[in-house]
Structure formats: C-alpha cells, structure tokens
Amino acid sequence: MKKIGILTSGGDAPGMNAHIRAVVRHGLNKGIEVIGIEDGFAGLIEGKFKKMKRANTANIISLGGTILYTSRCKAFHTIGGRAAAADRIKEANLDGLIVCGGNGSFHGAHLLWKEHQIPAIGTPGTIDNDLYGTDWTIGYDTAINTATEAIDKIRDTAYSHGRVFIVEVMGRNAGFIAMDVGISTGAEYIAIPETESNIDILYKKILEQGKNNRTIVIVGEGDEVGGAMAFSQILKDRFDVKSHVTILGHIQRGGSPTVRDRVLATRLGVAAVDALLEDKTDIMVGQINKELAFIQLEDTWTKKKKIINYQITLSEAV
Amino acid sequence: MKKIGILTSGGDAPGMNAHIRAVVRHGLNKGIEVIGIEDGFAGLIEGKFKKMKRANTANIISLGGTILYTSRCKAFHTIGGRAAAADRIKEANLDGLIVCGGNGSFHGAHLLWKEHQIPAIGTPGTIDNDLYGTDWTIGYDTAINTATEAIDKIRDTAYSHGRVFIVEVMGRNAGFIAMDVGISTGAEYIAIPETESNIDILYKKILEQGKNNRTIVIVGEGDEVGGAMAFSQILKDRFDVKSHVTILGHIQRGGSPTVRDRVLATRLGVAAVDALLEDKTDIMVGQINKELAFIQLEDTWTKKKKIINYQITLSEAV
Amino acid sequence: MKKIGILTSGGDAPGMNAHIRAVVRHGLNKGIEVIGIEDGFAGLIEGKFKKMKRANTANIISLGGTILYTSRCKAFHTIGGRAAAADRIKEANLDGLIVCGGNGSFHGAHLLWKEHQIPAIGTPGTIDNDLYGTDWTIGYDTAINTATEAIDKIRDTAYSHGRVFIVEVMGRNAGFIAMDVGISTGAEYIAIPETESNIDILYKKILEQGKNNRTIVIVGEGDEVGGAMAFSQILKDRFDVKSHVTILGHIQRGGSPTVRDRVLATRLGVAAVDALLEDKTDIMVGQINKELAFIQLEDTWTKKKKIINYQITLSEAV
Amino acid sequence: MKKIGILTSGGDAPGMNAHIRAVVRHGLNKGIEVIGIEDGFAGLIEGKFKKMKRANTANIISLGGTILYTSRCKAFHTIGGRAAAADRIKEANLDGLIVCGGNGSFHGAHLLWKEHQIPAIGTPGTIDNDLYGTDWTIGYDTAINTATEAIDKIRDTAYSHGRVFIVEVMGRNAGFIAMDVGISTGAEYIAIPETESNIDILYKKILEQGKNNRTIVIVGEGDEVGGAMAFSQILKDRFDVKSHVTILGHIQRGGSPTVRDRVLATRLGVAAVDALLEDKTDIMVGQINKELAFIQLEDTWTKKKKIINYQITLSEAV
Which of D64, D69, D161 has the CB atom closest to C153's CB atom? Predict the structure, then answer.
C-alpha cells in the first residue's frame, strides 16, 4: 500500500473536511501518498486526481462542505462507468480507496471491489445517521444542533404569538434527526417515519394549552403523513387548527462541524487509513459504544438501524 | 404623567425584550409606574395589565421574542374595539402608551390618540425595516444576521455540489433584508420588490461559472416574480437550469438580538419614555444618522422608505 | 414516594435547566409533587423550597445556567449543617432528593443518606466530565463546543499573523475538555494533567512550521506545568519562542446547551425520578454506551475515570 | 491606473477578507490588475506579491482573519524600510496601493506617499473603532457581537451563583467596545478610558442587589484603573467584595464577520478602488451617516474620535 485515494460522495455533510484532513495527514505520517479525488465518483471516472500535501488540509477542520466536492453520479450505476473508474485507478496506481458517504456511495464502493478488486473502505458521511454499523455518522451531530438552534428561534415566535408551528426536518426514511431534535427542542409532538402518527394525541396536547396554544411539532421528511405541509392540512381539516409550516431544508447540511463530528471524522479517517494498510476491504469503519467497528459494506444498506427505544419513551414522557 | 403602558404588537422582533426592559427601568428611574400590557392590542381590549418591577426585566436583554406577547388584533380595527381599549386605559389611569410594532400597529396607536386623546408613542419594532422615519427598526439587524448565517451554511452545499440555490428571505413589500443579505452572502443575484428582476442577467452569471455553477440567488418575499419557487420555475422553463429552493421562513423572526438591536432598542425605550414625559404624542421615535428622530405616526405608513442607492450599486459591482 | 425535591449544586452547567424540566414534568406525570430547592445545599439548609408546576419549566430547555440557582455551601460540610438540612426535608415531607452536580455535591448527598436516611439520587451535572460512572456529564458537550468555537476565532488571528497561541481550557484535574477541544481544533499540541508534557515535541512542531509558526497549544487548567501562563514562560525561557496566552475562563460554563446535553439531561431527569420511585438511593444515574448506568455515589469520587486511549493516539496521529 | 496593490496591516479584523474580495472583484471589473501583498508592510518590503484572480476570492466573504496575512512591521518605521518597499512597488509597476488597517498602518501609507509619491488609500480595518473619520471600522461590529455573546454565557453563571464578574474587553485607549458591549449586556457598570471610574457607584449598585449580587462589570482594556484584575483588587481592598475576572482576549479578533462588517467592507473596497482611479491619495475612505467620507490620513491619528454622548447617558439610564 503505497498510494491511496479519498473521495466524498452523495450529500455533503459537516465533518467531511475534518475527515479528509485526517486521512491525508495520517497517510502522509505513515509514508504513503494520498490522492484527493474531486467530485466523488464522477471525478473518479473523469480522473480528477490531485496529490494532497499536508498544507492542503491546513485550517479546514472547522469548515462545512467538502474541499474535494461531491456529486451523485448516475454513470457509476452502470458497469461501464465503474470499469472506466477502475481504469483511472489503475492508471494512477492507487492501491486502495476511501469512500466517505452514505449507503448509495457504499454500494458503488462495494461493486468496485467485487468487479475490479479495488480495495475500498467506506466511512459514514451523511447527516441522516441512517447507516447500520455505527452509532453516529459524520455530520449528524452538527445537523441536529443546527436544526435545534433554528427551532429555538421559531419557538420565540411560537411563544410570543401563541401559535402552532409544524417544522419539517431532514432524515430521509429515518427519524433520527426528528427524534433527537424533537426531544432537544421540547417539542409537543414528534412524527417519525418509523411509527404511525396519531394526530388525535397532538390535538389533545394543543387543547391542553388552552387559548394560547404554544406548540411545536417536529416532522421527519419521510413521515408517512407526507411532511409538514400535509400535517398542517390535516390539523386544519380535522380539527380546524391553524398552524404555520417551516421546512428547514438545506441549512441542515452545512455549517462548521461540532466537536463530536470533528472528533469522529478524525478518528474514522485515521482508522480508514489503518484498515487499508491492514489489507481490509469491502467494509465500513464506524464507531459503536466508543469502540471502532468494522462491518461489511453490504450490511450497511441491507440491515436497518433502529431508533433507540429510550428516545421514543422520552418523547412521550416529557 | 404618573403611569404609562407598554405593549408589543404585530410580528415579534428580536430586541423587543431589550426595549421593554429600557422602558420599564427608565420609567421607574423617573418615578413613574409602568404597566405591561400582554398580547398587544388584544390584551389592551381585554385589560391584561401587569405592573412591572425592575426584576421583571432582569436577564431578558438577550432573549428573542417578547415577554409581553404580541398579536394581530382584528377587533382593534373597529371603532368599538378601540373604544373598549380606551375604556381599559382610563380605568387603569394610564397617562400614556408606548406601542412597539410596525405600521399596522402605529395606525392603531394613531387612532387611539385621534379618537380618544390617549397620548401614544410608537417605536419601530419589526424585522422588515420598512418604516419611514428611522434608519433601522428594532429586529432588523438580527434578522439579516440570522439569514446570512443560514445562507453561509447553504453555500457549503452549493460549493460542494456545484448547485444553484434560490433562497427566499422575509421583508414583505420591501427589499431591505434581501439587499443586505444578498451583499453579505456574496450572492450572484438579488431580487427585490423595488426593482424589476432581469433573469437574463442571472442566467448569464450562471453560464459564466461553467459546468459547476455555484450560484446563490436571494429573493425577497415580495418580489414581483412571486418568490423563490416561481423564480426556480422560470429558470427551469426558460433556461432549463435546475435549482434548489429554500424558504428561510420564521427562523428570521427569532433569536438573541445583536448588539445593534439591543442598543437601538434600549435607546428608543429611554427616548419613548422621555417623549411621553415631554407630552409628545402621535409620533414615532426613531434614529437617523445616529440622532434621535421624531416623526408623525401617519408619515410612517404614508411615506415610503427607499433602499439606499449604494446598495443597488454594490449588488452589481461585486 | 409522594413528594420529591430537586436541587442543583456546585458549578453551574448547561443542561441543568433541561434536567430540572424533565424531573418536574416526569414527576408530575407520575402523580408526585416536585419541590424546587433554590441555591443548592445552602437553600436546603435555609428551606428555600418552591412547588414546581409544569409552567415553571416552560421554555427553559434552551437556557444555560440553572433557574434553581446553585452554590458551593461550606455549612453542608459540617454535621450540623446536614442535620439542619435533614430537618427542613422532614418538615417539608420530602420523600427523596435529586442532586444534580459534581462529586463534591454527591458527597453531600451520600452523607445525607448515611446520616439521616434521606433517599438521594445524584445526577452528573458538571462541564468537567470528571465523574466515574457515566460516559458524559451534563454540560460537557456544550463546554467543548463553546471552547472550540472560541478557539476557531483565535485561529483566525494565529493564521493571519503567524503566531503561537497557548489557550487554557477548564477541566480541573481532568484532561477531558483539553483533549476533545485539542483534537477538534486541530491543535499542534495538547497538554493534559493525566500525562507529562514534553515541550521539546512542541518546539519541534513549531520549528517544522518555519518562520510563520501558526501554532495552537491547548492546555488543561490542571496540567502539571501550571497552566497556559507557565507554558508560555517555558517556551520563552527554553526556546526563546514568543507566544500569546488566552485563558478561556467562565465562558465555558454558560450558554444554550447542545442537543447531546439536552437529551442526556432529559433522559437522566426521567431516570432519576424513576429511580426514586423504585426506592433506589445513594446512587448516581449516568449513561454508559447508550444505556442507563447506576453506580454507588461513593464510587464517583473514589474511582478515577480515564481519558480514552484513542484520544491520546489521535492527538499524536494527526 | 493599470495595476494596484492591496495589503492588510496591523491586527487582523473580521471583514478584511470581504474587503479584499471587493477590491479584487471591483478592480477586475474596472479592467485593472490587482496584486495581493502578503504579510502587510513586511511582505511589501520582501516583495511577496501575488496576482489576484476572481477565483482567489471565492467563498471568503464569510471568513475571519485575512487571506493576505498581516503583520506589525518594525522595518517599515525606518526610512530605509520604506525605500525598499517603494522599490518593490516600482519594480512591480504598481500604480497605487490600498492599505487596510489602523492608524499605525495609515502612518506608513502616508509616509510612502510623502517620501516616494506612491498613491495610497487607507481603509479602516480594526476591531477597536478608534479611527477618526468613519462611524465604524471594519471588524468592530463583529467584535462587539462576539464579546456580547461571550458575556451572555458568563451571565448564566453570574445569575446561577449570584456573583460579581469583571470582564475585560479590548479597545486599546478607546472605550467604544466597552461602551457598546456594556449597554448590550445590560452591565451594571461600564469603565472606559475616556472617563474616570467611580467605584463607589459600582459598590452602591452591588449593595442594592442584596445578598445575591448578580453583577456584570465591563472594563475597557485601556481604562485608567488598569484593567479587570486591578478593578477586582480595588473591589476587594476597599469594599471586601469578591469578584471573578475574565479577560476575553483574542476571541474578539476573529470569527465570521457580521452583516454590517461585510457590507461596510464591501462598500469601502469598491470605494477605495474608485478613489485610486480618480487619482485620490493620502486619504482614508470611511463612512459617516450612511455616506462615504474621505479624510486626510493624517487626521485619522491626530484627531480624536469621541464616544457618542447618548451612550454615556444610556449606560447610566438603564
């Protein structure tokens, strides 16, 4: 293992730069060359390779986004696309690849190994936290803090006016963001894709507050009711309750990473380099109960990570 | 002048609590009693009056929202509603009223003076900055900083992915927020209600950026194109350019006030009490070029405050 | 168990309000009365008791500090002081007590149980994270994020000027804060009380950077060298290197809690009430590897929590 | 005017990057070449020149510090040093120079013009706001907001414990920062270099608060008492009042600039380029009452900018 590549893929997540920094610096410390691949798998196919020096990663640990850029690449879903990528990798003499992204990106890394025997390590980079095999993904802690700070501001208006606010947060088909954000903002109701919503309970809570119904409802984007707008419409139609909708949107994907995201991103960057050096491949490096965890890439999308039970209890208890 | 009332009305704005604090403390220092009226004009009609002590305003200077609550009150638009309010004021022996809000609220204060001779002073409390007679309104500086911080996060994704983002900011029929936020985020295009949008210019800027079009467009909610969604649709229909839309929404209305908002709110609170003590009425207390400014309430909604020319120049220059 | 008390003690920590909120609301939901005791053990001796309603904890989940106030109480170190406290508790018919604080506070709670059989549950509330029996303490996550954000700002100047900055962070005799903050700010050197500092290594790192030595050193306040000022002096005396010192100080103790601190504080609040209801006493409720953990109060100060090994590795690897 | 240089000098200030961006982009738009000079006057003497493209200023508007670096240069205080700098300027065919900094830097620019007829424009870049000829300097608004946010956190502890905190802020011999920060944090006492401190008044305020003296005192670093430590000592010696000291230090110099700083920096960048193109020299470009202001460089350090009277009034009124 003399020369490795690193790319970021799929949606960007805060902490990706801290991760790139750790991969580059630990790689250089170990005496290997590190190549940054721009634009994710698209750049891999196009050969957008850049030799990384220590200085290229100076002062980036605090930056959101990814200095290597990212993309969602359709060509990589084809056999031809992956073959072209493998050619670029061989031409550049890369001995292994680190792919930071979500399960779509891991699928690509897995096929690169299966079809072309390119050693590939996945690292969990997504704000959604929906990857089996790691307690948290890089970017998740920042996203939930960003969402919570935004909703703290909305609560100022909810309290000043006595209004019902329905706030939609990201998370795709998983309710992690909604759950943590709901608990941390003291939301009166939390709707997640994993459980069926019971709007009668919400209505009861609104009624309890009397005339000045200062209510915050957090809705995960993948909730089966259909998002915050649909939720608001049901409240109107069934109970004649007026509510305001805010869809937090892309502000949840950016920003300077929190400490947890920076430390996790750094640790997994070091571990991913070590894993390649130990000839590991086709696995994701995660963290479970403070320890490093290694899991087959395939398991990250075939197995389903569960919302922790205590969270559901908490969201009802308080 | 022995006893005065203070209320907040219309949309809440950061700094309203700093303002209430200054009115209460300066009033008490001057030896007069200060009554907090809850829920704006609605609470005035209902007699929701509360005697304020110094301690009631401890530790609130940094809080968003308004501890006196606020409302948009339809009953106050009627002669009967205002008569009821005047009765409450007389019953409580209030010698004057301070109304912190926007031009709708000032209209109410003006009629209270005209119809019932209740001395009334307006203070500019709105994030929109759309009040004639003051350089800035209480809440504006916080709102533009909140929006800018949010868009800084969106820019992380815009840069990482090479995407066009259309971000809609508040401001009603005025482009102040959009203009300041557009300049401060280095937006490629700013659409404000005051000028006609030229989407060809925007398209040219997007083209200039080549394949990776990292573009931020700021659209004021009152823009004649019809907001960010309409803007995005036009880009799609006319130029086949794909863009992402974020509507910042109510996060712009809350949060801990900035220094400028706290200092302005404090200064105008002191000045409003002084104005009542000097038997002024039917005016708004504002600040122009660092000096206190006094203007007829009527002028605040009949005259139109203009976007400063240099801002339009800047938005094109850089 | 019909009536319980809750107090906060020792240094305040962000999340204490979220914790109080959870104790009060979960207690009320379980049908028991909850008494807030002001000023920690000092207020316990003086009988500063206040019946808590749900509304007393509205909108406090996002606030730093503690609405029940706190103190370091010398009288409680005496047998007489604790006897007086026990009298107040019996007069008020409190069936149990929840004490949120650090190991000094737990010592007090333990003696209250030993000497007067007052059922007492401790919950870990300190920014220092130096309590055995829980992965994190309430307030720790906020403190490390606050320190990191502050040092990100200092890094702007370090980079712009090419300077060496020595930044002292809190943590008493434990290096948790220094370690996490050092990794997350990409510090060139981290000095913690648990290990001996090797200033030659630091000097070598400074030399490697050539003329423009953009260097951040994080020093835990309990480090054996004697804090940041001493560190700076040694650099000057031994290597003639000029450095700037910043002691972050009390800003690390305040501020709106992060999501992790709010969720942890909420969870432990619910668990502490449940523990009292299950007739547990003389234990601290913590969280280890995502699960609730129960540990004898005595162990929290007799056993020593260790810095995690991977952190020491990381601080050297990157 | 075909080719101009831009440098940042003295202490770094948030907004310097927004300023560089505006100079570069407006210069390029006007068809002139823009050279970035690194390390301030030191880099000018050493010829550290770099041709700036539009892309060099992409995505820097939100960054603290200065991408051109800065320094305090002793050699430039000598005739020989300035002569060497003039040689570099002539070798590089620079037709004019923009110097962003404080009055020390302006002194240098002035001498470069006097001694070598290098057209030079100053722009006010310092957090201290102590320059005559402009309402605000670039960086000031960010610094006061940073300090206020830090003190909001300290207030959490002051309230929770009932303590007196003495907080020292920057500002050199001017009290601008202390005054704005004192008003915005609702400080009980503000000590500025421009007026004599009356610690009896402070003691009276502390007494008024009774046993739980929740008091914040803001001390400007240039205050004649000698800073926060001296202030604390006097409180101890004269009144036996215990207090806690925090010196905010360099966190006030960094961080992402506020909207006002970004807009001011952008406006003055455009205006500085325009001023060179109009053959102006030996002046500072500032902003007074919303309008651009042009003032002889010499006046910026020979004339003294005054604290605004209303601020002193406010600090006593509330």
Answer: D64
The answer to whether residue B159 neighbours chain D at the CB level (below 8 Å) is: yes
pLDDT along chain C (318 residues), means of 10: 96 98 97 98 98 95 97 95 98 98 97 98 98 97 98 94 95 96 95 91 86 86 92 95 95 97 98 98 97 97 89 78
Q: Which residues of A are catalytic?
A: 128
Residue B12: closest CA among B97, B117, B137, B131: B137
Start-end of H helices in C94-251? 103-116, 140-161, 176-184, 199-208, 227-239
Q: What are phi and psi of D295, to 5 degrees?
A: -140, 145
- Comparing C-alpha atoms, which of C276, C304, C301, C300 is closest to residue C286? C300
Say how far apart CA C61 and CA A185 lie, in whole Å.
7
Nearest CA in chain C to A316: C26
Chain A residue numbers touching B245 (CB-CB < 8 A) = 249
Contacts of D70 in chain C (CB under 8 A): 160-161
Q: Which residue of C has its CA nearest to D165?
A: C250
Q: Are B276 and B1 in contact (CB under 8 A)?
A: yes
The token pair at C80 is 């007489």
Q: Which residue has the tokens 């053990």?
A: C41
Q: Tell me which of B74, B146, B170, B250 to substitute to probe the interface with A (most A C-beta atoms closer than 10 Å).
A: B250
Nearest Cα neighbor of D43 from D110, D95, D113, D92 is: D92
The residue among C250, C258, C261 with the most chain D CBs within 10 A of its CB, best to mutate, is C250
Distance CA C102, CA A22 (A): 35
Q: How does pLDDT run across C255-309, given as a tens digit for each residue? A: 999 999 999 999 999 999 999 999 999 999 999 999 999 999 999 999 999 988 7
Measure CB to CB from residue D184 to each of B184, B259, B318 and give the nearest one: B259
Amino acid at site B192: I
Tell me what the pLDDT averaged over chain A comes to. Answer: 95
Report the chain A residue with the minimal C-alpha distance to residue B160: A69
Test mutation, D165, D250, D252, D256, chain C, max C CBs within 10 A: D250
Predicted confidence at residue B140, as pLDDT, reads 98
Residues near C223 by beta carbon (within 8 Å), at least 6 away in sequence: C175, C178, C191, C192, C193, C197, C231
pLDDT at position D313, please?
80
The complex's ipTM? 0.96
Q: Which pLDDT score is estimated for A313?
A: 80
How far from D294 is each of D131, D160, D193, CA to CA, in Å? 13, 49, 27
Q: Is the pLDDT of residue D212 over 70?
A: no
Query: Strands across the sheet with B244-247, in order?
Result: B189-191, B215-220, B164-169, B244-247
At residue C51, the pLDDT reads 98
Nearest to A156 among B12, B153, B165 (CB): B12
C253 in D contact zone (CB under 8 Å): yes
User: Which H/E stretch holds residue A101?
Assistant: strand A96-101
In DSSP notation, D147-179 reads HHHHHHHHHHHHHHHT-EEEEEE--TT--HHHH
Mean pLDDT computed over every residue of chain D: 95
Interface of D with C in 37-56 (CB under 8 A): 39
Mind listing the domains of chain A with CATH numbers? 3-139+257-302 (3.40.50.450), 141-254 (3.40.50.460)
Segments of chain C assigned E as strands: 3-8, 33-37, 49-51, 96-101, 120-124, 164-169, 189-191, 215-220, 244-247, 283-288, 291-296
CA distance D232 to chain C (A): 15
Of A58-72, B143-157, D98-112, D204-218, the poorest mean pLDDT is in D204-218
Distance separating alpha carbons of residues D289 and D287, to the nearest angstrom: 7
- A247 and B251 in contact by Cβ < 8 A? no
